[in-house]
């Protein structure tokens, strides 16, 4: 889990670096959409961005920023897979993971998602850009990162709760152990005293209640 948290911190740094270059990203999408003759089409899927990079990107600046975007998306996918490998189906984080899987699917329609406060990616777009073209694609990374962080937090809470329950159960067992042994010993001693299994009776290893043995014959009285 610590390694996963370190991966998330590294992703946060990459996301901040990308957010600082959002204007460059939007400009790259504008040019590649024009080269692809899709000026009226919103950028709504990851497959679309990959297609622009592979076939319609004609300068290194555009290529660099689109590559950075897709690299971050790929890192998010890898982090999701690692988190999934640590979770069970009934984990409280399962909802977050399912949402991440859907959002990171290459042909999933992103046009309906919007990053909310405290994220400001959408606020840096014009109304027309946000509403019609880029609101979804710029919201993808912050939304998925938030979901992954929520998944990790939920998993940690579940692990702490389980550890606390196991610790309490161990403590109860430890307290009950000596008492049970003492009770069993007392019960065993009682059974022995009642003569059930002991070769000795209550008077000891022989019976001292009988009169002493005397030889046969008349008893001389003086």
TrEMBL record:
Residues 213-222 have a biased composition (Pro residues). Residues 179-188 have a biased composition (Polar residues). It comes from the Eukaryota. Residues 159-222 are annotated as: Disordered. This is Sperm acrosome-associated protein 9-like.
